[in-house]
Fold:
Amino acid sequence: MRAAIDRHPMMRASLYGARQHAWRFTAAPSADPVWRVDGGGDGWRIHEMLMSAPFDLRASPPLRIALVHRPDGDQLSVVAHHLAVDGMSLAAVVAEIFSAYGVTEESAVADETAVAARTGGGPAGVPPVPRAAAHGWTAFSQRSGRHITPMDASRDAGYGYHPLTLPVPARRVLLPGGRRMTVNDLLVAAAHLAIDRWNRRRGGEAGTLRVRMPISLGIAPGTSGNNTGQVVIVSEPADRADLVRLAVRIVDQTERAKQESAAPAIAGVAGRVGAATTARIPGPWRGSLLRWGVRTARPLITPSAAVSNLGPLAAIASDNPKISSVFFTGTAGMPQGLFIGATRYGAGLHLAFGYHRQLFGRAAAAAFAQIFQAAFAELAAVDGEARQPS
Structure:
């Protein structure tokens, strides 16, 4: 783990500057990012803590690592701030960790772990998860028709995660005209269908739904930082009433997004509001007005959910140690509140439903995942070759 950190400057960077921030690269991380957890423990709950606690990028590196030792097998949790690294780049770092593990002497691993890894009190530089004030997201989401209806929500500001592993579809869905749905298309379409069904079953509305999907910007390899933009995939109630029509609508948009991926996309609410205000507002006022603008605009322009698929992760495959599954997680603030991360590893399609605690409780997240699983299976069984979409 430490060798991988040494090879990647962004893993030990920190921010500096009062108004305009820049990265400072140091020989060693400003705080130890590695935490070893002995004696068991729930690895997913530890991961939730690492994901939920805010980063202070001035005082701590944009990386957190927890190695959880359990009787049934260890769990490695690697968390990085999105300003510093994107999902595929982080997956490459994880692959390096496992590759180095296979050629490292066991005695050296034991000595390094005993001396350097923190084993108690939590990882360095990770503050407690804040508690948020109550917010009326439930009533707003039910009326808007654009967001997921909350259930069993709490006042906590953190995130929970529900893992789900599905078999990789054995066949590609064929659409009218000979086009085929990718696994990514199926995931995005299933998110639209699951949100529609969830809202209707809980007395909410399901109008125009928007699902955010990260996409490569085609930036040259080796460029530092996050090299992904975002596109929004839209569906209407009439689309979701017919599986073939929904599939065609999704594929139309994802294909267009791939063709246009060289054009930088503005990432998120802050990016949109920031681009609109930077040229018009004096520097000393810009920060405060930008924060106010983001809070005001968020309910109006946030999508319904986010889906991010890292695809096959064959580079992480290892027999020493034996890796059983690989999950990819992310976060989404309210009123969006849901991030579905996907990876393909082995014969499984591994999904992690990351939910804001003001959106779901644990039981509600599990129930939503079941609806998503059913929607995914229905879409994977579609045969659109025989007819045109209605």
